[in-house]
Amino acid sequence: MKLDASSIYNNYQTDKILKQSHLKGDDRKLKEQTNEFEALILKFFLDTSLKLDNPLYPKEAGTEIYQSMYKESLSKQLSGSFGYSELLFNFLKEQEVGKR
Fold it and tell me: Which residues contact 59 (CB under 8 A, 6 or more apart)?
């Protein structure tokens, strides 16, 4: 059986969704969106903090693409674990309840 990054990532996302199975319909979609938003924030943090420009070591072909893909993958895997997603989810749910 061949394991690659995409299958590991898909298994991770499936497990994450199963853990959130207590959420129904719109709540599940909202939680997925808040996790995606947290991943976006984390990617901005990673882009800023991992600027690896060093004049002593010239860049090789494809380095920027590889680093960008790595940061994006890392941010998606870390999303949902820093609390921004949960905070935003709870805030939006309170706003929804307040409108009713």
Answer: none
What is the rounded (10 degree) CA torsion for 33, 38, 44, 50? -130
The pLDDT tens digits of the residues spanning 57-90 come to 777 778 888 888 988 898 888 888 888 888 999 9
Q: Tens digits of per-residue pLDDT, 31-57?
A: 888 989 999 999 999 888 887 777 777
Q: What are the CA-CA distances from residue 5 to residues 13, 14, 25, 71, 72 (Å)?
A: 12, 14, 29, 14, 13
Segments making up each domain of the chain, as ranges:
5-99
